[in-house]
Design a protein that fits this description.
This protein is of the alpha+beta class. The chain has 29 helices and 28 strands. The radius of gyration is 29 Å and the shape is globular.
């Protein structure tokens, strides 16, 4: 029996200590990578509406653009002919335009009658309105017109709108291409248009270009209208402007056909052999999605394109999805299982958008979750349908589900449906709420209502709203109809249940108290925040199910009970045995946290230690995640968490180890400089040693997909714990690569490079540094950029961070501001090196091109570094930097307060958590007998239940 439980007295003291402190979670747990398409824009004035007037509507666009991008020239000429209908009598026609110039416009009736009218125009730069009018002319409701606008523009260099991208070919020559990224409000940069998602129209695209280049767009080429240097495309179906796409390049492609749909993958020359995985997966995913929805893909072809400079990650342009190269290209010899999985899930995300967002647009950006939530769900569900052996929902639970819970713990978290109007406001919706929470809430109802009802509801929604736009009520109505069609009883209306999750922010905390005499249990709900003393009146319709030790069946995830927007309820029909553990939320599909009475936590812990496989892996993961939150917020003693973790020697699944890794890494970050850190390492060594011995540092051919993920987590935890075999084996693998050229297995590269570099001499460091600089594989470059930050030599790290501003090296512009973060987040050495570097070079770093997203990297990294400050000396050093840069144009006036808030949160965390953690692990190392302590704890719990 493992040594684990500390004496009851220690637990009692820890509980008292916790009760007196209000917890605030450290800021580095809240940092997220957000898609912010228009955050580069400056805030607008508040007094005017940024919505177009509804006096006219587009019917179709005929767009012609001329570009000489093959020479690197950024200027382009354009002509757009908009067929529009007048909805109400008006004297002006208003469209959007951004960073375009030299307009001339004419108007004539769509039926060809009458004379052409020369138009005048005014511009509202702030709202990006282009207002056309003719003196003395009123446009009559019901009439249709052809608005012709000629204009000029320049390809941008920030990866937004119609922009310039470059790469180096196999012969070392610089190549240029022009491509697009229009979501959410950048179509107006390529051509004047009605740039709102509900303004659907048909688009006919024609591009004039050098004959050596080719062009792809949303639709197939119209061969009859195309010629050398002129590529014209078939008209699109009705679609929003932000989904239009075209790429002018020398790209090459692979093609295939499945489900009667031609598909192609495009990328730069020399990468054709890396297109197969994306092509194969794309065909299979589309087949699974169209089958699930019972709605066929609407266009005659589907293309995927890998762009060398692409900051958004990926984009669902209808019929032509675009990606970063690392998210589409897969090399069978040296790409990792992580790259393989990323390609599959991101491709599935974009393909899901072809239905949610493209076929059915959102009515307005306030309903962004209505497309991004579905895409987040189906990036996993479609892959699960295509590759069920992967068990992909473990990665969903470890990533999106946890991200949503953390984001939603803020008492001011916004609801899913949230009013916005300005471009800068729209940009802020591309966050963990729209994506991760949206996907998690939808997945909860997929299980609670059964997949059959949910699937039919989505079919109803897509069929009723195709080629149009929708809001959340349309979705609720479609699912309600499906429930009636399937004769599925619901406890309240679908709108009542769903809207309690979409129209208010936050996440529920369920507190479960068992009656060990009659087997019943009571569930209370409240809003969860990291401050246990926070009070809220919010209530939800919460679907519930449960499993017990005597019947550990986690398969059926349909809701068996509901909290019907009530504060508490008693489940009287449970009849659980007093010795059974009770676990709510089978497979952790419900979107909420759950706290239990102390006796049930003890029963769960004993069940995990004795037979962990009887509890579903995602439930095991969530027990760890919840307990960390509850311990750190003062809701349960730290010993409850630390004791539960002692089951990990028997754990071999990814999601639980991912949750445990999060906890261990956080504790390590805070306690790394503590005098008693050795006791913490001893404890972690005990947790990981057995599984490290099982997984080892060698890749195993043919093993289960997630085993490769689990191995990497176990290696990192083992090396963090100072396990000698881990430190030696990772160092030896890296050194063998340097000395003999023996490749590191692709799936082991991340932990081997990182842990090997922690112990590397200058020669080894320089080898990896040069390998990164010379690599043309974007996924490998990203991996090595992260790994180089693991080094623990100040000299090595000084060289590395200085490369961010050395314009003579081979870093791409979007890589330069990714160097510091993996350095300062790996420990005190890297943190201090980054601060010293910025003290000397803050102006040069602040002048780096922030690119897509627009937040200055100097500001971003100072805020990021403040999240890792845990000592007074680190605080003083960072303050020196803040004093030097505040007041400059690179940082906002809020810099000081943001830094202070982050550091204070860390200090508060240490004050509240350090002592009980160190006390427990020290007692664990000193050999507190697990059996006697466990019996004593159980006896006290039973005695308390009898007395009170």
């Amino acid at each position: 029996m493992a040594r684990a439980l500390v004496p009851i007295f220690v637990l009692f003291v820890a509980a008292i200590t916790q009760a007196s402190v209000v917890r605030q979670f450290p800021p580095f747990e809240r940092l997220e990578l957000l898609e912010n398409p228009n955050q580069r824009l400056t805030p607008r004035a508040d007094e005017d509406t940024y919505r177009l007037p509804n006096n006219t509507e587009p019917i179709s666009y005929d767009i012609t653009i001329s570009t000489n991008v093959h020479t690197g020239e950024t200027g382009f000429n354009g002509t757009v002919v908009i067929t529009l209908e007048v909805i109400e009598n008006s004297e002006i026609i208003v469209v959007h335009a951004r960073q375009l110039a030299n307009f001339s416009a004419t108007l004539r009736q769509a039926d060809g009658q009458g004379n052409e009218i020369a138009l005048e125009y005014t511009q509202d730069i702030d709202r990006e309105f282009l207002k056309f009018f003719a003196n003395g002319v009123t446009f009559t409701a019901g009439t249709k017109w052809l608005l012709t606008i000629k204009y000029q523009g320049n390809l941008r260099t920030d990866n937004g709108g119609f922009y310039l991208s470059t790469y180096t070919d196999e012969n070392g020559a610089t190549k240029y291409l022009a491509t697009t990224q229009f979501e959410s409000t950048d179509a107006r940069h390529a051509f004047p248009c009605y740039d709102e998602p509900a303004k659907r129209a048909n688009f006919t695209i024609t591009i004039h270009h050098d004959p050596s280049y080719n062009v792809i767009s949303n639709m197939p080429v119209n061969e009859a209208k195309s010629s050398s240097g002129v590529t014209s495309f078939e008209p699109t179906l009705k679609m929003p402007s932000y989904l239009v796409a075209f790429i002018v390049s020398e790209f090459v492609s692979s093609e295939g056909k499945l489900n009667d749909l031609p598909q192609r993958v495009f990328s730069r020359k020399g990468t054709e052999h890396e297109q197969e995985w994306a092509l194969t997966t794309g065909m299979l995913v589309e087949k699974r999605l169209s089958g699930y929805f019972d709605v066929p893909f609407a266009l005659p072809k589907l293309d995927q394109a890998a762009i060398p400079d692409f900051a958004a990650g990926a984009m669902e342009n209808w019929g032509l999805a675009t990606y970063r190269e690392e998210y589409l290209l897969y090399n069978t010899e040296n790409s990792t299982v992580d790259t393989q999985t990323n390609i599959a899930t991101i491709e599935a995300h974009e393909d899901a958008h072809m239905w949610f967002g493209d076929l059915v647009a959102i009515e307005w950006w306030s309903y962004l979750w209505l497309k991004e939530g579905f895409a987040t769900l189906f990036e996993n569900l479609a892959v699960d349908l295509a590759y069920p052996e992967w068990d992909i929902f473990q990665t969903f639970h470890a990533a999106n589900y946890q991200r949503a819970l953390i984001t939603d713990a803020n008492p001011n978290a916004r609801p899913l449906t949230y009013f916005v109007e300005k471009p800068s406001e729209i940009a802020l919706l591309f966050d963990g709420i729209s994506y991760a929470k949206g996907g998690s809430v939808l997945d909860m109802w997929r299980h609670a209502l059964t997949n059959k009802v949910f699937q039919r509801g989505l079919h109803n929604y897509l069929e009723a709203n195709k080629f149009s736009s929708a809001n959340e009520t349309d979705l609720f109505d479609a699912i309600a109809l499906a429930a009636r069609e399937e004769n599925f009883p619901v406890k309240a209306t679908i709108e009542e249940m769903f809207s309690s999750w979409t129209r208010q922010g936050g996440v529920p905390l369920l507190t479960v108290e068992r009656n060990y005499d009659d087997g019943s249990f009571t569930i209370k709900q409240e809003q969860y925040t990291d401050d246990k003393n926070y009070e809220s009146s919010k209530l939800w319709y919460v679907p519930i199910n449960y499993a017990v030790h005597s019947s550990p069946d986690f398969r059926n995830t349909m809701a068996t009970h509901y909290l019907l927007k009530e504060k508490e309820m008693t489940v009287g029909d449970a009849k659980t045995n007093k010795d059974d553990w009770l676990i709510l939320n089978k497979q952790s599909t419900g979107y909420y946290r759950i706290n239990y009475d102390s006796q049930n936590w003890q029963l769960i812990t004993e069940g995990l230690i004795s037979r962990p496989h009887k509890i579903h892996p995602r439930n095991r993961a969530q027990l760890i995640s919840d307990l960390y939150r509850f311990a750190s917020s003062g809701r349960v003693p730290h010993g409850t968490l630390l004791q539960l973790l002692t089951y990990l020697p028997k754990e071999d699944q990814y999601a639980p180890w991912s949750a445990a890794n999060t906890v261990i890494t956080l504790f390590n970050r805070y306690l790394g400089s503590d005098s008693a850190f050795g006791n913490f390492q001893f404890y972690v060594n005990h947790l990981v040693n057995e599984q490290y011995d099982k997984f080892g540092v060698n890749d195993v051919h043919g093993e289960q997909h997630l085993a490769k993920y689990t191995r990497n987590v176990v290696i990192n935890v083992a090396c963090l714990a100072g396990l000698e075999s881990c430190l030696k084996e990772t160092k030896d693998k890296l050194q063998t690569l340097v000395d003999n050229g023996t490749p590191i297995e692709a799936n082991l590269q991340a932990p081997v490079y990182c842990n090997g570099l922690k112990q590397a001499n200058d020669e080894t460091f320089d080898f990896v540094y040069n390998k990164m600089m010379n690599s043309n594989d974007q996924a490998e470059r990203r991996l090595l950029i992260s790994a180089l930050g693991c080094a623990q030599s100040s000299k090595q790290l000084e060289k590395y961070v200085s490369s961010s501003i050395d314009k003579s090296n081979k870093l791409r512009s979007q890589e330069r501001y990714t160097i510091l973060s993996p350095t300062y987040s790996r420990g005190e050495v890297g943190l201090l090196v980054c601060i010293d570097f910025l003290l000397e070079n803050w102006e040069a770093y602040g002048n780096l091109n922030a690119g897509f997203g627009g937040v200055n990297p100097l500001y971003t990294d100072i805020i990021g570094m403040s999240a890792y400050v845990v000592t007074d000396s680190q605080k003083a050093k960072l303050q020196e930097l803040v004093d030097k840069v505040k007041g400059s144009a690179f940082v906002p006036s809020t810099l000081q307060s943001s830094v202070d808030d982050n550091i204070q949160a860390n200090m508060d965390w240490l004050s509240a958590n350090r002592e009980p953690i160190i006390s427990w692990v020290s007692s664990f190392r000193n050999g507190s007998p697990a059996i006697s302590a466990s019996i004593l704890a159980m006896a006290l719990c039973l005695l308390a239940s009898k007395l009170f």
